[in-house]
Amino acid sequence: MRPVVAVTSGEPAGVGPELCARLAEREWPVRPVVLGDLGLLRERAASSGSAAMFQSWLPDADVPSGTVEVLHLPLARPSRPGVLDAANGPYVLGLLDRAISGCQNGAFAAMVTAPVHKGVICESLGGGDALPFSGHTEYLAEHTGTPRVVMMLVGGGLRVALATTHLPLARVPAAITQPALEETLRIVHADLARHFGIAAPRILVAGLNPHAGEGGHMGREEIDVIEPVLARLRAEGMNLTGPLPADTLFVPHTLAQGDAVLAMYHDQGLPVLKHASFGGGVNVTLGLPIIRTSVDHGTALDLAGSGRADPGSLFAALELAATMLAARAAHAAGAAA
Ligand SMILES: NC(=O)C1=CN([C@@H]2O[C@H](COP(=O)(O)OP(=O)(O)OC[C@H]3O[C@@H](n4cnc5c(N)ncnc54)[C@H](O)[C@@H]3O)[C@@H](O)[C@H]2O)C=CC1
Ligand SMILES: NCC(=O)COP(=O)(O)O
């Protein structure tokens, strides 16, 4: 029996629904079940030229090839491609809630997420200028009761984890405290072993400031925060290199010396990753009690309904969820032996 993986179809006005229809094009090592409005999925498949067939998910039913299994959850209002509607914000969050509860009660082995639109969800929550929804990562942490999680993107031969995620740049330095950085590194270390089969991970840690602070002349976070944490964790046996100047960390010679990079903030690490792998990269949430992977791109409202959106990242996200499930089982078996 293949493990059942929930695939949330995301923002209904974006490319998520049509990309989910394209899961019908392949056989998968896991059994994907798309969470979304069945009518919407049919309509977007048709408008984007997909020949996918759809069937309601019944755990014991057989599925002909070329068919997408769907757990139908109804839209609040009909959706047009490229046109956001805050009335559907609760629908999008409802997809996530259903996937989370299914992972927690054992119905699903993992979840994969198609893109959501953070702005329209904030609007639907009446956020004003506040940010009541800043991303799947933070939402999953809150809704699984996990105090800290880590966003890591995988692609183009790279693994790039982030010490901070969706935060205004001005708030980044204050968020990089010794306890936060220490917890983040522990999560990256543990999950590279648990979910990626890397027994003794080598982690390259970026500095925050240009030239990693130039010995304190261009900022002191490296001296006051990062170095003491690295020293403490090295004493426990972790293989950590840094703080490294971020501008040269991503040269091939340096990257070859690590299994993953820890960047200090979103736009320090992700542009490099997306340059190397856009369309085939995967976003993984480390530190959760469940396995969650996601596409590396957003809602692409400009492409919705056109059939021109590339499904490569969604396909890679599903493949990686399957690989992580296998690695987790092997790790657990090793620990029990
Ligand atoms: N996993 C998620 O839920 C993510 C959600 N977002 C959200 O998506 C919304 C739009 O973000 P943008 O910055 O405009 O990024 P975007 O990724 O939606 O679009 C950037 C450019 O990439 C293109 N693109 C995106 N996906 C593509 C695909 N599958 N195939 C071909 N081309 C593709 C778009 O057409 C556009 O030109 C925002 O609300 C953002 O927060 C962004 C990244 C990830
Ligand atoms: N830049 C990554 C992104 O926006 C996706 O974040 P999340 O929704 O997976 O938390």
UniProtKB/TrEMBL annotation:
Any one GO molecular-function label of the UniProt entry: zinc ion binding
Residues that bind substrate: H136, T137, K274, N283, R292
Record text on cofactor binding: Binds 1 divalent metal cation per subunit. Can use ions such as Zn(2+), Mg(2+) or Co(2+).
Keyword flag Glycoprotein: no
Compartment(s): Cytoplasm
Keywords: Cobalt, Cytoplasm, Magnesium, Metal-binding, NAD, NADP, Oxidoreductase, Pyridoxine biosynthesis, Zinc
Keyword Oxidoreductase recorded: yes
GO cellular component terms attached to this protein's record: cytoplasm
Chief location of this protein within or outside the cell: cytoplasm
GO biological process, one term: pyridoxine biosynthetic process
Pfam families to which the protein is assigned, alphabetical: PdxA
Positions of a divalent metal cation binding: H166, H211, H266
Necessary cofactors: Zn(2+); Mg(2+); Co(2+)
Catalytic activity: 4-(phosphooxy)-L-threonine + NAD(+) = 3-amino-2-oxopropyl phosphate + CO2 + NADH
The EC number(s) this enzyme carries: 1.1.1.262
Metabolic or biological pathway: Cofactor biosynthesis; pyridoxine 5'-phosphate biosynthesis; pyridoxine 5'-phosphate from D-erythrose 4-phosphate: step 4/5
Subunit structure: Homodimer.
Record's function text: Catalyzes the NAD(P)-dependent oxidation of 4-(phosphooxy)-L-threonine (HTP) into 2-amino-3-oxo-4-(phosphooxy)butyric acid which spontaneously decarboxylates to form 3-amino-2-oxopropyl phosphate (AHAP).
Family: Belongs to the PdxA family.
Protein name in UniProt: 4-hydroxythreonine-4-phosphate dehydrogenase
